[in-house]
Write a structure and sequence with these properties.
Elements: E1 4-10, H1 17-32, E2 36-42, H2 49-59, E3 63-68, H3 74-82, E4 89-92, H4 104-113, E5 119-124, H5 131-148, E6 160-163, H6 164-170, H7 180-187, E7 191-196, H8 210-224, H9 227-256, H10 264-297, E8 304-308
Parallel strand pairs: 1-2, 1-4, 2-3, 5-7
Antiparallel strand pairs: 3-8, 4-6, 5-6
Length: 309
């Protein structure tokens, strides 16, 4: 019988881990009656999450624990877990109980019936995120649709069911700041959504601030697309044509003697426009050069402090 590996990034979740474990056990042991392993990756939590994880490990040998040396983020934590999965299928879900374990049988049933599907992404029927998170997600989805050639109707979420070979294909990525959703879209086009219920957070608040969402979006755009460079190029073309037209008009006015203070207004406008365009171009090129520098460093995605298998 197929083994299911469930990878959960953990950050300040001492209040939800026990409930998450119990609900997963009920789903797999009682409802599905299928074997599973639970890989909990502590992303340098500041609360007692690690102690709770250790208590779960003492009760159940199917629980595997990993602790990061510092806070590397959700996606590096997932990559860490991917290196230790043993299952035929891999599930990723959050630690805050917004992803309902009770929805997994629905996703697994579809995977059993669809041999042509490699990845199932949950699509939330009644998303419980705040307005900022919803807006950030919408912008990110729109951007990745354009950049990666993704099906615009496909929603990328962190609640996933994947075949093992997909995980093996992406776990050794050398991208400096990996995004699991983007890697999946780049790896396979056999990805579908399954509608699931989405719960509100039981405790705390999301670690994704508006600033973090904006930074992630900017990184995705400048990593996967030349759109900013194309925009700057088009602005440059427009500015050149505009300057050419203004130059012709100014020259005609000069010949007709209608300019009382020759060149002053035109000079100021051209200087302001060209200076702004120059600074914009330098900033855009600098963003791309910064990404090239970061990629060349080949920094590790994560540093594992300890593990308990």
């Amino acid at each position: 019988m197929a083994l299911y590996s469930i990878v959960v990034p953990v950050y300040n979740s001492e209040h939800t881990l026990e409930t998450l474990y119990e609900r997963l056990c009920k789903v797999f042991d009682e409802e599905l009656q299928r074997p599973f392993e639970l890989l909990l990756v502590d992303d340098s939590s500041k609360d007692n999450s690690w102690k709770v994880m250790q208590s779960l490990k003492e009760r159940d040998s199917r629980v595997k624990l990993f602790q990061m040396a510092r806070n590397f983020g959700q996606h590096p934590a997932l990559l860490c877990g991917f290196h230790y999965v043993e299952g035929d299928f891999v599930i990723t879900m959050d630690d805050d109980l917004q992803h309902r374990p009770e929805e997994l049988p629905k996703m697994i049933k579809v995977m059993d019936e669809r041999d042509d599907v490699d990845v199932i992404l949950a699509r939330y029927e009644n998303r419980k995120d705040n307005i900022i998170r919803k807006f950030g997600t919408w912008v990110s989805v729109s951007a990745t649709t354009k950049m990666l050639g993704k099906d615009p109707n496909l929603e990328i979420t962190s609640f996933r069911l994947m075949r093992r070979f997909i995980v093996d294909a992406i776990k050794d990525t050398t991208i400096n700041h990996p995004q699991i959703g983007n890697l999946l879209v780049s790896t396979s086009n056999r990805i579908i959504n399954v509608d699931v219920h989405h719960d509100a957070r039981a405790y705390g608040h999301s670690g994704y601030s508006f600033k973090a969402l904006v930074n992630t979006l900017l990184f995705d755009i400048t990593t996967h697309s030349a759109l900013p460079l194309i925009i700057v190029r088009n602005i440059g073309i427009f500015t050149f044509l505009f300057s050419l037209v203004m130059g012709i008009i100014t020259f005609i006015r000069y010949l007709s003697g209608s300019i009382t203070v020759p060149g002053w207004t035109t000079l100021i406008l051209v200087l302001l426009a060209s200076s702004g365009l120059t600074l914009l171009s330098i900033g855009t090129l600098g963003e791309y050069l910064m990404h090239i520098l970061e990629e060349s460093k080949k920094n590790p995605h994560y540093v594992l402090r300890r593990k308990e298998l």
